[in-house]
Write a structure and sequence with these properties.
By secondary structure, the protein is α/β, with parallel strands linked by helices. It is about 35% helix and about 20% strand. The strands form 3 sheets. Strands 4-10-9-8-7-5-6 form a 7-stranded mixed sheet, sandwiched between helices. Strands 1-2-3-13 form a 4-stranded mixed sheet. Strands 11-12-15-14 form a 4-stranded antiparallel sheet. Helix 9 links the parallel strand 7 and strand 8. Bound molecules: pyridoxal-5'-phosphate (PLP). Pyridoxal-5'-phosphate binds next to helix 4. This is Aspartate aminotransferase family protein. InterPro entries: Aminotrans_3, Aminotrans_3_PPA_site, PyrdxlP-dep_Trfase, PyrdxlP-dep_Trfase_major, PyrdxlP-dep_Trfase_small. Its cofactor is pyridoxal 5'-phosphate. It holds the Pfam family Aminotran_3.
């Protein structure tokens, strides 16, 4: 019996002993196609020689130096790289060890900014239903995944909640896409008004919704409207790109495709591609400048921020993505994957929707296509799909979410950017 507190306390997972390219090997010698990159993490696949070499070199040079004394060459170079490729003006970088930590840091930075500029009355965040922003208390509070929140709800800060942009279920019969988008923006405006816009710190949203809904892109113009509303009231916009960012959707940042620039953006998973635990917050320079001229200190910090091993690995990952021009490849392989999914499952009686962007695809499962009725949660369909795929040597990321207050099942696919058409087949 394992001493580890595994995700399930009723079973011990397989032991992974090796990995190469898009495959992970277990202790029995069985190979699995990593079709979800873990949880949309493994963007370069496994054991990429350039990343391994960079990690070895960094181990020889410097493994760790506390950031209250030192910066490091690897961290400085990675921050410069991220700033050079960030949306306009977002050229300040705060390093963390992962996604939830990035969201926590973004929430606190946003709050501190308003305290520093003399607007301490801003104390509330607004976020969307059916979203996931992490499992630490602040991130869980802004998240709208009811199943994850339920038992911790009494510990969580109050958050203003609005509907997600989820066309498959949210757009009404006869409603145009534009009318649906305007309806969502009116709901957001009404929420700001209800709270009092001068009390809102930031609106937090995933540009393409990942874990809770399964690769749901926004409708055209939705985020432009969000940006306008936030600007109207001086509210910050935090884009959570922990899952959909760092190239997953075919551009380095998903929000680029919406033509808007957030104030803060959280990134993680694909930043280090799983080679090391690392995340970051990209921040508009004015925000950091205001704090610099005020207290001069972001009142936050963890022991492992800017860890040299992590930043060296992430730098190598990002350089390979750029050198090998993987963004066009993500777009073309993503289109190929989407066509293959449509051809194979598009007419399946229990597939309600196939959606996504780049190499980030979601398949929503329904009991009935016409009514979009969901399966009974007792069936644990998503768990059974995961087990069956695993038995067949395929790693997919299925989730049972909440759909209109009821249970829903979807399967997320997020293969490494190096996936070939033959692999997709
Ligand atoms: N934000 C989003 C959008 C995520 O998808 C996740 C993880 O899936 C997180 C935050 C939390 O990241 P982590 O699991 O690295 O703490």
């Amino acid at each position: 019996m394992s001493h580890i507190i595994h995700r399930s306390l009723q079973s011990t997972p397989l032991t992974a002993v090796g990995a190469r390219g898009i495959h992970i090997m277990d202790a029995q010698g069985k190979a699995y196609i990593d079709a979800s990159g873990g949880a949309a993490v493994s963007c370069l696949g496994h054991a990429h020689p350039d990343v391994l070499a960079a990690m070895h070199a960094q181990t020889d040079k410097l493994a760790y130096a506390h950031t209250s004394f030192f910066t490091s060459e690897a961290s400085e170079e990675l921050a410069s790289h991220l700033a050079a490729h960030a949306p306009r003006g977002m050229d300040k970088v705060y390093f963390t060890s992962g996604g939830s930590e990035s969201v926590e840091a973004a929430l606190k930075l946003a709050r501190q900014y308003f305290v520093e500029i003399g607007q301490p009355e801003r104390t509330l965040f607004v976020a969307r239903g059916q979203s996931y922003h992490g499992n630490t208390l602040g991130a869980l509070a802004v998240g709208g995944n009811e199943w994850r929140r339920r038992q911790f709800a009494p510990l969580l800060m109050d958050v203003g909640r609005v509907s997600p942009c989820y066309e498959y279920r949210g757009r009404q019969d006869g409603e145009s896409q534009d009318a649906y988008t305007q309806r969502l923006l009116q709901e957001l405006d009404a929420k700001f008004q209800e709270i009092g816009p001068q009390r809102v710190i930031a609106f937090v949203a995933e540009p393409v919704v990942g874990a809770t809904l399964g690769a749901v892109p926004p409708t055209p113009g939705y985020f432009k409207g969000v940006r306008e509303l936030c600007d109207r009231y001086g509210i910050l916009f935090i884009a959570d790109e922990v899952m959909c960012g760092m190239g997953r959707t075919g551009t380095l940042h998903a929000v680029e495709q919406e033509g808007v620039v957030p104030d803060l953006m959280t990134i993680a998973k694909g930043l280090g591609g799983g080679y090391q635990p690392i995340g970051a917050v990209l921040v508009r320079a004015e925000i950091i400048e205001a704090i610099r001229q005020g207290s001069g200190l972001f009142q936050h910090g963890h022991t492992y921020i800017g860890h040299p091993m992590a930043t060296a690995a992430a730098l190598a990952v990002q350089k390979v993505i750029q050198r090998d021009q993987l963004m066009p490849q993500v777009r073309s392989r993503g289109a190929y994957l989407m066509r293959a999914l449509q051809a194979k499952f598009g007419q399946h009686p229990h597939v309600g929707d196939i959606r996504g962007r780049g190499l980030f695809c979601g398949i929503e499962l329904v009991r009935d296509r016409a009514s979009k009725a969901t399966f009974d949660p007792e069936l644990k369909l998503h768990a059974r799909i995961k087990a069956q795929a695993l038995a067949n040597g395929l790693l997919v990321y299925p989730m049972g979410g909440t759909v209109d207050g009821r249970h829903g099942d979807h399967v997320l696919l997020a293969p490494p950017f190096i996936v070939s058409e033959a692999d997709v087949d």
